[in-house]
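Progress against Task 2.4 (sequence-to-structure conversion) is shown through the following example record, which the project officer requested during the mid-term review.
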Amino acid sequence: MKQKRKNSNQRRFIQLYYIGGSLLIFFMFIFYTNSLLKQVKKDVEVVPDLYSKFLGLPDDVNLEQFIFSYFMQNIVPKINYPIIIADSLRTPSSWEYCEIEKKSYDELTFEDQQKLQKMYKNMEAKGNYIVLKPNIDSKEVVGYLFYGESDTMKRLRIMPYLEMLIVIIFILLGVYGLSILKKNDRNMLWVGLAKETAHQFGTPLSSLKAWNQFLAMRIKDKYDDEEMLAMLEDMNTDIDRLHKVASRFGKVGSTIKLKPINLDEIISETIDYFQKRLPNYSKKIEIKYISKIDDLEIIADSDLIKWTLENLIRNSIDALTNTAGEILITSFIHKKRIHVQISDTGKGLPKKMFKSIFFPGVTTKERGWGLGLSLAKRIIEKYHNGIIKVLESEINKGTTIEIVLPRKSK
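Structure tokens generated for the chain above:
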């Protein structure tokens, strides 16, 4: 129920994200564009103002003195970008924001003169200059006003890329959110299926256990058949095991309470369970266990760890069907983490399946739902903060799957 409510809230959040985010980006672009346009208008006001005053001057005015005075009073206070005033021969007479000492051009060092020339030539190449003439129709040039790129122009240049980047990030975050939502929906399906399976198992298993106990009492009272009683005891053991399986399915998607367990014992018990049943699979299969973890305890759920090991060992047995082979299980500590490796000499996996084999529905078997390794991954990584992976595999040579667990799980 909580998961369903969580998914519903996530779905509403995604809807609000797309609607609200689209509106926010739209108004943000409008605001940003308008602010740039206002700044551009402010930046270019100096040009018509300069022309209007320049063209209205009487003939006896000293043009160089006027330009310098206008430059210092009307332009410099409003700008923060390089600007150079030059005479008709393009010799600089004044400059600002050029990182060059303010003195007469002739008094500058040769390096500074070269730097100024390079700057105004770059400005001229970009078309960032004003030709100063006595009047519009005159062919006489009395000077040049070269100017660099303002912050506004720089912002205008990067504006399309900035907008594109914001839109791409917005879309990617939305797609990521949708993928999480889809994954949660898929998880809900598996969780619901697992819990329903556990629920459906419950009633008939309880009934079977009761009938089994009833039969045992009748046989003991009337026939006293030890062989039959032993068979009923084995049946009772298998019924108890089915109860555990149902309990494991019920834990999927639930809050798991972890406690200290002896991992070495868990592995040994799981191997013993299969050792007794190997003749049912093949008499040619041998299971070996090499332990280097002694009586090490970890914080985990013993049933879920057993379930994972059973799935992996059963997969190894299936990979050895109709052929002789060996299953080797090793456990050791490396860099404060516990490693458990399950190796077989079976059919092997192609490299392209090393990751996909853990996806629900993916299997190499002719029969099967492909859920065992998917559940194993969920148990190890989600509930125990560990890692499960195909360590190595080669077609017709075998596979090694490794589980890595922290010394102290979450």
